[in-house]
Amino acid sequence: MQYKKSVALLVAAASIANADSSSSTSSNSTSVPSSCVVKSVATAQSDLDKFSGCEVLSGTLTLTGSLGSAALADVKEIQGTLNISSAQNLASFAADSLETITGNLNLIELTSLQTASFGSLSSVGSINFITLPVIETINTNLQSADNVVISDTALETISGFSKLQKVSIFNINNNKALVSIDSDMETVSNALEINSNGDNANITFDNLIWANNITVRDLNGLSFASLEKVNASLGFLNNSVTSIALHNLTQVGGSLSVIANDELTSLNLSSVTKVGGGLVIANNTKLNKIDGISNVKSIGGALVVEGNFSTLDISSLSSVMGGADVVTTGSNFSCDPLKSLEKKGDIQGDEFVCKAPQASTSISLSAKSSSGSGSASASASASDSDSASGSASGSASDSASASASDSASASESASSTKSSTSSKSTASSTVNTKSKAAAFAVNAPSGSFFGALAAIGLALL
């Protein structure tokens, strides 16, 4: 956990550097009196009072030291960054006249801060609220921000962003008291990451139409009523929700992962017709019927479905560019639809596995690519078990399940994964260490079956 927090701090530091660089350019565009140019670090209220006659400040204003409370009066714009960090005694801060910050607003490692008020703030480059263990409220009127990172706080609700309609990164992690996030956001151009928050946390993003990446973990409830498209990856991991319904979602450009949601009984992705990467539905203990992907026509990577299901409706599926690994302990499951796809060549990867109590099929397809003849041998047992293996490959029917959630690296670095997540075993696989998974990831083609399993293994380690 400490490592994850350190990563979040490093990402915040990088954001600060970028914001300072961009804001220095903007500060040169507007002339301000020399008395309103920040020249030193503020350590007392008297240092802030020097700017009481300034509507515009130029430069990075850093506040630290042993203040108990502090306020920035009159200032409407900071052409730079407002950085409040490591002020261990600071209990409250207010800057209610402040409307614009061209760089970052950083509240970092403030262990006594209970309230922060920015009642007029509508525009900021990035927000980093990190390690605020007793914070109760943060008041803003925010309408524009590039990045929002809120990590390791005592906030119960995050609702000060109701007017914020578009961001690049929205990352909320490790807020153990968090109960709800309500947002009117419409687009996320880089990554939406929600993970490791309170056990009863619920999120509502009912106005969100489009995002590049979405990964949500450890939630008690979630809603994306208007979501139509995800350009890259979409992952639902280790949630306690009973239902996932994305009625308007039509396309996922990268991987789609639904993994280890122990209470999930209903999955409805009925409008999805195309998944550009791998499709992974695994270890959802109570999901006995998988009929919400019936309109998926093509999968650009591997198909991995594992669990205790009796129904898997893939009636529209006509193309799987990777391999297929379907394993169930449920009764009355038939492998026939998958066998039909494989025989027609619609499953194009190097491995095909279908296992159920009544029937089991394991076929290596690499012989087709090495000889062109498809000379695989097949044998059937009394238990209706078919097994065929090509002369150019060995058995690789061990199953794996996990997240192919390949969110953008910026959001991935900013998020902290709950420590208990790693203790949940979501797969039984020969790829059981990070080093082995990494080796597969390096050596396996990205569209191959092993490539999918490698990405899966890396994601949950």
From TrEMBL:
Cellular component, GO annotation: cell surface; fungal-type cell wall; plasma membrane; side of membrane
Any GO BP: fungal-type cell wall organization
Keyword presence, rRNA-binding: no
Keyword entries, A-Z: Cell membrane, Cell wall, Glycoprotein, GPI-anchor, Lipoprotein, Membrane, Secreted, Signal
Mode of membrane association: Lipid-anchor; GPI-anchor
Coiled coil, from the record: none
Residue ranges of the region described as Disordered: 365-432
Predominant localisation class: membrane
Compartments it resides in: Cell membrane; Secreted, Cell wall
PANTHER family in alphabetical order: RECEPTOR PROTEIN-TYROSINE KINASE, SPORULATION-SPECIFIC PROTEIN-RELATED
Family membership: Belongs to the SPS2 family.
Entry protein name: Related to Cell wall protein ECM33
